[in-house]
């Protein structure tokens, strides 16, 4: 070993030796744990502070927003057709619960897996495009599924939707706490994906796809995997939504549902992961409050918030408050 | 090692390469010269599969036609782009851990060759200076274990000291049997490291020369 390589080896060993931690990083880690604890306490308190049905709705949209953010924030793909996965999972969950009588966690899992399977052909075709073309391809597929669900009324109930989805836990208050572990599981999965080597490859693909290809990554394959994982998370949210409402409407497949999820993500902060749940809490609570007040043009308010966020806080609430890079 | 035959490429109606051909042997540094817009970068991109082109490209006898860029990378082509390809949201250490194959230089070798990268391994890639970003791009290709490096103007915008450092690294790679196809405007730098020259003009390789001053004289340098 040359003198310089010995020096480098020594320096590397010294760098890896645990030493006094920089004050800033210890503070940041403590702040993260505090934030996590506060979020858990907030989630546990939520049904006491709000109508339990609204609290359940926040959980579902939080998962949906995280699914969209995984794709938009970490792969750079703006899906405008994720309602296809949310709605398909809602229908699949409802049908499984009605016809097979499965307990709700299993029914939700079946729904999420159905959404994931549906994501394979849609994703395979869509990820070959980027930007507006990707958004339009996903939107077109979602609208096709919407039309199929509308016409196939013997299975889906058509415009009347899927009625009387059975649920053993009838009280929304208790159902919230039964659904919470599934939501935490989904959020943990998203966090794990983002912080894994796979997540770093996704970011590399988002930042410079040509470079990622030249490094030896099959970019389309990675995008497809991310698309499927995103569909799975959206499916978890959609399945819980069906069980939470004990009813599945055709609207779950409509493009406005995808649009609402995108607004939630932009408000919370794109590429922040936790901005999604924050945006979901804000938008769902606001919609509930406006509708309770008798205000009918809810879209005007959420649309206005979207415009203001894009113009004034492009990094969203979470991005503005917490994101350092 | 790397053999290119009758490579043609275009951007829409504009033909950039028409039957270009060259070869780079193991442990050889071949410099591709030519004026701006001659198609040097396009040739590298075609070899890497990042730009469509017709013609034959083979690596160690393996025909690369129809192979996607990631397959070419896995076969041993390493691309060091002129924009340096630094990832805005990844640190130096994360960037070095990014390649799926890490059969080339060990992390210790990389940090020994590029002490600046070791010192700044926790920094975001785009916070590095231009020279450090260039080092990172080279380090990433070496870490992958690429057998042929396609270097697109690695000295552009670098200080003389860093240019010298890049030269040392290329010579070190050469000693290990790595072939280098170098696109370079800095012909004085190229003269120091190259074993052979190719002059690209009108979409073709017009002149080939061994490493001597003839080509520099021909180009009026």
TrEMBL record, chain A:
Q: Where are the transmembrane segments?
A: 31-48, 54-76, 106-125, 132-153, 173-191, 224-242, 262-286, 298-317
User: How does the protein associate with the membrane?
Assistant: Multi-pass membrane protein
Query: What InterPro entries does its record include?
Result: ABC_transp_permease, LivM-like
Cited PANTHER family: ABC TRANSPORTER ATP-BINDING PROTEIN, HIGH-AFFINITY BRANCHED-CHAIN AMINO ACID TRANSPORT SYSTEM PERMEASE
Native source species: Rhizocola hellebori
Under what name is this protein listed? Branched-chain amino acid ABC transporter permease
The terms under GO molecular function for this entry are: branched-chain amino acid transmembrane transporter activity
Query: From what superkingdom does this record's organism come?
Result: Bacteria
Q: Which Pfam families does the annotation name?
A: BPD_transp_2
Q: What is its main location?
A: membrane
Kindly list the places in or outside the cell where this protein is found, as annotated in its UniProt entry: Cell membrane
CC annotations in GO? plasma membrane
Keywords noted in UniProt: Cell membrane, Membrane, Transmembrane, Transmembrane helix
What CDD domains does this protein map onto?
A: TM_PBP1_LivM_like
TrEMBL record, chain B:
Q: Name one Pfam family in it.
A: ABC_tran
Q: Name one GO biological process term.
A: L-amino acid transport
Which family is annotated? Answer: Belongs to the ABC transporter superfamily.
The GO terms describing molecular function are: ATP binding; ATP hydrolysis activity; branched-chain amino acid transmembrane transporter activity
Looking at the record, the residues that make up the ABC transporter domain are 2-219
Q: Which SMART domains match?
A: AAA (SM00382)
Q: Report keywords, A-Z.
A: Amino-acid transport, ATP-binding, Nucleotide-binding, Transport
Q: Which InterPro entries match?
A: AAA+_ATPase, ABC_transporter-like_ATP-bd, ABC_transporter-like_CS, BCAA_Transport_ATP-bd_LivF, P-loop_NTPase
Q: Which PANTHER family match?
A: ABC TRANSPORTER ATP-BINDING PROTEIN, HIGH-AFFINITY BRANCHED-CHAIN AMINO ACID TRANSPORT ATP-BINDING PROTEIN LIVF
Q: Would you tell me the protein name for this molecule?
A: ABC transporter ATP-binding protein
């Amino acid at each position: 070993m040359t003198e310089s390589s010995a020096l480098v080896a020594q320096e590397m060993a010294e760098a890896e030796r645990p030493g006094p931690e920089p004050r800033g990083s210890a503070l940041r880690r403590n702040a993260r744990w505090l934030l996590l604890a506060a979020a858990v306490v907030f989630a546990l308190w939520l049904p006491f502070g709000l109508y339990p049905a609204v609290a359940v709705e926040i959980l579902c949209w939080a998962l949906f927003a995280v699914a969209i953010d995984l794709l938009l924030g970490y792969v750079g793909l703006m899906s405008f057709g994720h309602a296809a996965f949310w709605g398909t999972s809602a229908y699949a969950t409802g049908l499984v619960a009605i016809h097979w009588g499965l307990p709700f966690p299993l029914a939700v899992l079946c729904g999420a897996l159905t959404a994931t399977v549906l994501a394979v052909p849609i994703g395979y075709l869509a990820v070959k495009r980027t930007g507006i073309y990707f958004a339009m391809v996903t939107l077109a597929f979602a609208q096709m599924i919407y039309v199929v669900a509308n016409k196939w009324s013997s299975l889906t109930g058509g415009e009347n939707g899927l009625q009387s989805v059975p649920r053993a836990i009838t009280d929304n208050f208790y159902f919230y706490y039964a659904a919470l572990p599934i939501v935490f599981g989904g959020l943990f999965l998203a966090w794990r994906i983002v912080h894994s080597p796979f997540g770093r490859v996704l970011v590399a693909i988002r930042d410079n796809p040509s470079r990622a290809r030249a490094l030896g990554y099959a970019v389309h394959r990675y995008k497809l995997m991310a698309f499927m994982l995103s569909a799975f998370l959206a499916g978890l949210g959609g399945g819980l939504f069906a069980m939470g409402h004990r009813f599945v409407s055709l609207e779950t497949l409509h493009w406005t549902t995808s649009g609402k999820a995108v607004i939630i993500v932009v408000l919370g902060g794109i590429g922040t992961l936790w901005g999604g749940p924050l945006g979901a809490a804000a938008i769902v609570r606001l919609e509930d409050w406006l509708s309770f007040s008798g205000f009918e043009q809810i879209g005007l308010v959420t649309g206005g918030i979207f415009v203001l966020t894009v113009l004034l806080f492009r990094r969203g609430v979470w991005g503005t408050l917490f994101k350092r890079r | 090692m790397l053999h290119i035959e009758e490579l043609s490429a275009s951007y829409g109606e504009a033909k950039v390469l028409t039957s270009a051909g060259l070869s780079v042997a193991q442990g050889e540094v071949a410099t591709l010269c030519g004026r701006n817009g001659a198609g040097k970068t396009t040739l590298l991109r075609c070899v890497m599969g990042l730009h469509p082109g017709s013609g034959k490209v083979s690596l160690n006898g393996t025909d690369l036609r129809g192979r996607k860029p990631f397959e070419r990378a896995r076969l041993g082509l390493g691309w060091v782009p002129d924009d340096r390809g630094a990832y805005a949201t990844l640190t130096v250490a994360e960037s070095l851990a990014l390649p799926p194959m890490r059969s080339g230089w060990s992390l210790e070798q990389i940090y020994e060759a590029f002490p600046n990268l070791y010192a700044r391994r926790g920094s975001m890639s785009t916070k590095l200076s231009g020279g450090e970003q260039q080092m990172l791009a080279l380090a990433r290709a070496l870490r992958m274990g690429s057998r042929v490096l396609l270097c697109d103007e690695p000295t552009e915008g670098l200080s003389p000291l860093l240019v010298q450092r890049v030269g040392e690294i290329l010579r070190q790679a050469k000693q290990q049997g790595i072939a280098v196809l170098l696109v370079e405007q800095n012909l004085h730098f190229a003269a120091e490291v190259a074993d052979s020259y190719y002059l690209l003009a009108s979409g073709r390789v017009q002149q080939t020369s061994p490493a001597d001053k003839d080509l520099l004289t021909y180009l009026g340098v």
